[in-house]
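Quiz preparation item.
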């Protein structure tokens, strides 16, 4: 080699200049797939890995029309559908997470319903599906059937959606061309093409959509829903009406601008009435965070505040911990049972937020609700100025008078407590002020 080097090196350089650089071996897609198949067993790759690589090499050769689900096999809902108990049961039984919604004609798909959107919908309301669609605005993306699968997958990732409506142009003689929906394609369909096998879970009706082979392992039993309500503690219609009027007019958090009258009525008919019995545990303890507000309806509750553990009684329509509805809250007082039974209203923060959400849906308004008027660091509410020595908020007895002087006043008993407090004052300061006023009187 050393002897022939001075001669061979110049000759090789001369040949490179004349013939060009040596070309490597190049394989087309089909040849590469065949090579993988022929060398199966001679390399350390698993069979499934070879199948997936083959699927990746083939993905750009297929069109969306080849992998879509035909429109006749797609479960869809009419936008005029009322969301009642039966419709919800049907939706759950299908096992789909996204459902196309059409208007008038099945070719006119106007949006998508995400099943999770029904979490805040009460089946007893019979809410129109159109209200849900307009509130969430899930767009039904449309693609053409001749679009490449790889291009669609890139569009899925770029635009961040998982389902598209496949359409094609239908030519009509003497009329304008129209788009006709021919199927639906999802991200799962693309993944199945890559791994070259069907992805079947417990909610799928078929193992293979092409041959309609049913899924024997489908496990989606109907939930044991019943229209029969669980036992809910009730109050008299008169007291319920007085409670509704007091909340909607005297507590800004429950004003109609935040919660509609219909939703507030439904909230009061839910399981929000609780009872304290003598000798029971406190419902609110000082220094322990809570996520609900309470309002006494009948009977008395014993209040303990301050480092001296000052104790006194509070009667009907006294409210506690309203700021807990809008955010974290730590009370500085303890509320415990009195000497007799006591009924009280208990509204949790999550239920309050659901009520606001439901109000926004039913009114078809997508607005970010501000915090209720006067909410400060402590979430307290500033009253409007009134005569000296008097609170500007209406007395609960006025509420009864406004609703016709119902005969349930004696059952409610003496009314105590003032709802409006100065901004920045604590719960215990408000109650101490009320108790002092009572002693002066």
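Solution:
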């Amino acid at each position: 080699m050393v002897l022939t080097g001075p001669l061979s090196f110049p000759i090789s350089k001369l040949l490179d200049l004349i013939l060009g650089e040596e070309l490597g071996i190049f394989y087309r897609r089909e040849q590469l797939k065949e090579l993988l198949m022929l060398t199966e067993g001679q390399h350390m790759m698993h069979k499934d890995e070879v199948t997936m690589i083959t699927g990746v090499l083939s993905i750009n050769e297929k069109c969306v029309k080849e992998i879509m689900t035909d429109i006749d096999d797609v479960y869809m809902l009419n936008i005029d559908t009322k969301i009642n108990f039966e419709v919800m049961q049907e939706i759950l039984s299908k096992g789909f997470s996204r459902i196309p919604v059409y208007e008038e004609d099945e070719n006119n798909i106007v949006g998508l319903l995400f099943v999770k959107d029904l979490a805040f919908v009460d089946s007893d309301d019979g809410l129109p599906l159109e209200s849900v669609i307009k509130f969430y605005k899930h767009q039904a993306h449309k693609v053409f059937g001749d679009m490449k699968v790889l291009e669609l997958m890139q569009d899925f990732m770029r635009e961040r959606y998982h389902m598209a409506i496949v359409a094609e142009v239908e030519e009509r003689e003497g009329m304008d061309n129209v788009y006709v929906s021919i199927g639906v394609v999802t991200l799962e369909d693309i993944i199945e093409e890559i791994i070259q096998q069907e992805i079947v879970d417990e909610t799928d009706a078929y193992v293979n959509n092409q041959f309609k082979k049913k899924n024997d392992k489908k496990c989606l039993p109907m939930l044991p829903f019943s229209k029969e309500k669980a036992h809910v503690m009730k109050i008299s219609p008169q007291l319920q009406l007085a409670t509704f009027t007091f909340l909607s007019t005297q507590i800004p958090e429950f004003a109609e601008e935040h919660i509609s009258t219909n939703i507030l009525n439904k909230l009061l008919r839910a399981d929000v009435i609780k009872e304290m019995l003598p000798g029971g545990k406190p419902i609110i303890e000082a220094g322990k965070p809570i996520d609900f507000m309470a309002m006494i309806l009948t009977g008395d509750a014993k209040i303990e505040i301050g480092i001296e553990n000052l104790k006194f009684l509070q009667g009907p329509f006294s409210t506690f911990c309203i700021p807990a509805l809008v955010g974290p809250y730590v009370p500085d007082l303890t509320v415990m049972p009195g000497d007799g039974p006591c009924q009280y209203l208990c509204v949790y923060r999550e239920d309050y937020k659901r009520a606001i959400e439901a109000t926004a849906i039913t009114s078809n308004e997508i607005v970010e609700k501000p915090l209720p008027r006067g909410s400060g660091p402590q979430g307290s509410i500033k009253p409007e100025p009134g005569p000296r020595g008097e609170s500007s908020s209406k007395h609960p007895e006025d509420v009864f008078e406004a609703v016709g002087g119902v005969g349930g006043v004696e059952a409610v008993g003496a009314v105590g407590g003032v709802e409006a407090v100065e901004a920045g004052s604590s719960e215990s300061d408000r109650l101490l002020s009320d108790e002092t006023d009572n002693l002066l009187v």
